[in-house]
Design goal:
Number of helices: 8
CATH class: Alpha Beta
Structural class: alpha/beta
Shape: globular
Largest sheet: 5 strands, mixed, barrel
Number of domains: 1
Oligomer: single chain
CATH topology: Rossmann fold
């Protein structure tokens, strides 16, 4: 763990954010395309633009607010990246991992990573919400490169957080599929041949993000889980239908309230479990 923190750490950013009142929340979110409404649906306690945080980077993709937020939802506090930094924007994977390390150093112990994704599983439909129970990192690199023995830590999602997310969705009456995320570099959409490859490899959805944050979280000792929204069916899954970016944006806009409801339910469940565990001590 020490090696991962050494390569991903950003002490200057942590000190800056600590002074601004960001330290404290145990639950963190990385809010991908369409998921940022969660912050706007609750109370913002503190906020800082990425470009103002020392060494943090900058988000340039439309729909990503590009700010770190300490927020409150249903009386529960959290830390959130409202918008992420993508490898295809030119950010090294180590910088993406460093953002996770900053959240860890501010107190986050449970991380929920979200994204928009293309549906590869033909049983899926546009608008489906998917709980990522496993993932395939096809970025051909890792945020842990150069981290020595930390690069050999087991990676994956937290079984406890998987159960917590399932329980939260069920209690909120939100249908949730379980699937495998295939993570590619982007920024172009996949070809039909690539989508067939993803399906052969066992992927249910494909995105251009998420795996780096999940890998970094595991190396840093955080429990983490992923959630995706199917914003389009990947090329070739529905014969004769092309990916339309405007349609992707429309789906994200239409589903933003449902995103917020799900994340609020997951946050409440994690806080409930934390209070129950504290009561047993």
């Amino acid at each position: 763990m020490a090696d991962a923190a050494a390569i991903l750490g950003n002490e200057e950013a942590v000190a800056f954010l600590d002074e601004m009142g960001f330290r404290g929340p145990a639950v963190g979110f990385v809010l991908g395309s369409g998921w940022g409404h969660f912050v706007d649906s609750g109370e913002v306690v503190a906020a800082a633009s990425y470009e103002d945080i020392p060494g943090f980077g900058q988000s340039t993709v439309a729909g990503h607010a590009g700010r770190l937020v300490r927020g409150r939802s249903g009386g529960h506090e959290y830390l959130a990246m409202q918008g992420r930094m993508h490898h295809y924007e030119g950010h090294p994977l180590s910088r993406i991992g460093a953002a996770v390390c900053v959240m860890r150093d501010l107190g986050v112990r449970e991380l929920v990573v979200t994204c928009a994704a293309g549906g590869v599983n033909p049983a899926y439909r546009v608008g489906d919400l998917v709980l990522i129970h496993d993932f395939i990192n096809f970025m051909l690199a890792s945020p842990l490169r150069g981290a020595g023995r930390a690069a050999r830590v087991p990676v994956g999602v937290s079984p406890r957080l998987l159960k917590a997310a399932e329980h939260a969705a069920d209690r909120a009456g939100i249908p949730l599929r379980k699937g495998v995320l295939f993570s590619s570099k982007g920024p172009s959409y996949e070809t039909p041949a690539e989508v067939r490859m993803v399906h052969t490899f066992g992927g249910d959805v494909v995105s251009m993000s998420t795996a780096p944050e999940l890998i970094a979280a595991a190396a840093l000792g955080l429990e983490a889980v992923g959630l995706a929204c199917v914003t389009n069916m990947a090329p070739g899954v529905v014969p004769g239908r092309e990916v339309n970016h405007e349609e992707v944006i429309e789906v994200m806009e239409a589903k933003k309230t449902r995103f917020s409801e799900l994340l609020a339910a997951v946050l409440a469940r994690l806080e409930e479990e934390r209070l129950t565990a504290a009561g047993r001590r």
